[in-house]
Amino acid sequence: MLNTISTDVLVIGAGLTGLRAALAASQFGKKVLVLSKGPRCSYGVMGFNAAVGKEDSDKLYYDDILSSGKGLSNKKLAYILSKNSALELRYLESNGLNFEKTAQGEYDLLQPLGCSKPRLVHIGKSTGPESEKVFLEKLGQAGVLVAFDVTVLDLLVEKGRVYGALAVSQNQLVCYAASSVVVAAGGCGALYSVTTYPEGIQGDSYAMMARAGVELIDMEFIQFEPCCLAEPEILKGRGISTTMLNVGAKLLRADGHDFLSKYIPDIRDIQKGNLARAMYTEMGKTAWKPLLYDLRSISEEDLETHCLWTKELKACGLDTRIAPLKVCPAAHTFLGGAKVNERCETSVKGIFAAGEAMGGLHGANRIGGCAGAETYVFGAIAGESAAKYATGENFSQQAEMLARKIFTTYSPKGDEKYELIAIMRKRLSSCVSTGLSIVRNEQGIKASSETAAEIESSASRISWDNMSQLTACIELKNMALVSRIMSAASLARKESRGVFYRSDYPAQSEQFELNFIVSVQKGEITLSTKPDFHSD
Fold this sequence. Notes:
By secondary structure, this protein is α/β, with parallel strands linked by helices. It has helices at about 15-25, 60-70, 75-95, 125-140, 205-210, 260-265, 270-285, 300-305, 310-315, 370-390, 395-405, 420-435, 440-460, 465-490, and strands spanning about 1-10, 30-35, 45-50, 120, 145, 150-160, 160-170, 170-185, 215, 220-230, 250, 290-295, 325-335, 335-340, 350-355, 360, 515-520, 525-530.
């Protein structure tokens, strides 16, 4: 049985990006519905960049973004982020959020890696959770429903226009008919064995958009958070802020060797990509033992200011005053995603993308503090654009027809056993973690691509008995498709740039100062290049 629910604007993802988009859309009198799969990264947003310091400016912020992007950032998107971040700060303040101030009444600004000036505004260490509370309260007041535990399977598209999405909610198949859709559920960290992201954030949005005909961009670029806990297991992958390197923390090899100065003479100039690669290289010299993050020389005040997990560390018996933490790089922010313009429009009419679901903004690397900023800035833009696009028509009939058509492709009687799905996921994750890691080469990339193709084929033939099992099959299929797309883009980029490093092509090449645009037609991946994209 297929249930149908209609709305004007459908928002997929209930993290900060999705909630901000829903708020913006609701201001235009349109019916808005938000779907949440469950895992979100909002809790990890400690703060965000805004050029509000006396010595800072929008221009310096903009220049930092472009410098970090190594020639691949979309200049229009970078300009919008640098300009609108302060506006979003004012918006949050107007809704009751109080950002940290100094005794002189100025913002207490932190300096993330890659920023030439301190510009990270924050509410203690809880900017994300506090923002989420305010957004949910305002959405409730506006009558916007946020539906939780909903897994979107596919977008409903015909002749280049979206009509909604097909999803599973409470073990029921649901057709969500909509005039416009905002995809705000980005990230693919869970493709990797060690990640800062919650389980479940595994690239579903990229796969769904690709199948729907949306062009993707920069799919070879993923940023690895350098300093993440390697143990204890319960805290594995939790990021320990690299901003503490600016206030006296030390990063040492397992044998106690201080190696950073060999790679970066001035720690203030370090980029996350360079740091993660340096750590990866040094770990290889000690049989891949975790590195040591020594926080003993920094003050309690700095520790409380910069570290999100002090309480959790103490609860696990880890005292940073006594011993260093064991850390390693972990898969973090995905820099690729839907190719969008300054209105967050994708190549498919009615589909808008924002936050980590969109690509092109960061180019080959992202400065610290911008992941948070883009959730607010482009969430607001995507929501407004989607509301303006929504016609108010009821597309239930078209959506139901497309939903039933797609559902017939989910064959429940395949020749693969459902019990094998966990093994397939583990195998895919292992292959991606090796072949599409911080350092790549042709052999590893091809191995990842071949394994992903094999698993994607198997996932399409798994026999399932209920909606829960169907969801797991689609998720595995998504993970495999995204892995294939990442592999295709990685093979095409025969150079090293930003966070992307190939040991067989270690130098940056002018020939590859371009963006790879990915499209998928009937499972076949096509890459094209538009050398002038970043100067739009």
